Amino acid sequence: MKRIVYYHPQSNFSRKIRILLAEKNLDYELKEVNLRNKPAEFIKISPIGKVPVFVEEDGTVIWDSTLIAEYLDETYPEPNFYPTHPQAKLECRKWEELADNLGDNIINLWRLNLINDLEPTFYRIKLETSINNLLPVFEQQLAKSKYLLSDEEWTAADVAALCSFGYYNLRLNEDWVLQYDNLKNWFNKLHERESVKPTIPIPLN
Ligand SMILES: N[C@@H](CCC(=O)N[C@@H](CS)C(=O)NCC(=O)O)C(=O)O
User: Residue 5 phi/psi, 5° resolution?
Assistant: First the structure.
């Protein structure tokens, strides 16, 4: 059977997997999931009800973008997106986790905006503070090297981070580019890649 990715076109976590599959030149079928009315076929294979879910040719089901990314890298190592040395891999996973945490907080802040809950509640302040604290952390890291871990090559951490910053643009605003030069240059450079351009999330009408 053909590989399947259950996804949503605006999902930053699905985007991580689409970029990795394109970079690894792997064929697959995209199945869009209506997240407001999840089909039974999707619920059956996704206990947490979130995209992405990946189904391998042999029927193996994997959910959670990081588990999928690690599986893909171990199974199809060319090109590699996680370092093989344990210490370097840990560093990569840490930056990926920070990027995913940024993505989660943007999703939750956008949901508050969507229901027009603009009160400066504890929860809103917590989300905004967490997002605002993470931006300079990425900026400072990118002052040290061209990519998050080195000058030589991008990793799964860069992929996750570019998806979260792309999601920031979609759901909140694009003002961060005015304040953070290293982030802006890194983000623009990664968007020259053929795997990245076609996955830019676009607002739905
Ligand atoms: N930790 C999960 C997060 C996935 C996630 O939050 N997906 C969102 C879309 S970006 C989703 O499916 N939300 C639907 C829902 O929560 O009902 C991953 O890395 O895959």
Answer: -120, 115
Query: What is the domain count for the chain?
Result: 2
Flag whether 128 is in a domain: yes
Strand order in the sheet with 4-7: 29-32, 4-7, 53-55, 61-63
- Start-end of H helices in 65-175: 65-75, 86-114, 122-144, 156-171
Q: Which residues sit with their C-beta closer than 6 Å to ligand 1? A: 8, 11-13, 35, 49-52, 64-66, 100
Distance 144 CA to ligand 1 centre (A): 31
pLDDT in tens, 162-205: 999 999 999 999 999 999 999 999 999 999 999 999 999 998 75
Query: Any idea what the CATH number is for the domain that residue 134 is in?
Result: 1.20.1050.10
Give the global pTM: 0.97
105 and 40 fall within a common domain: no
Tell me the per-residue pLDDT of 92-110, one tens digit each, with 9 for 90 and over.
Answer: 999 999 999 999 999 999 9
152 C-alpha vs ligand 1 centroid, how far in Å?
31
Mean pLDDT of the chain: 96
Last residue of a domain, one of 75, 105, 128: 75
Domain containing 97 equals 86-196
52 and 131 inside one domain: no
Given its phi and psi angles, is residue 17 left (phi above 0), alpha (psi -120 to 50 degrees) or beta? alpha
Cα-to-centroid distance, 34 and ligand 1 (Å): 12
Same domain, 130 and 166: yes
| Average of per-residue pLDDT across 10-14 | 98
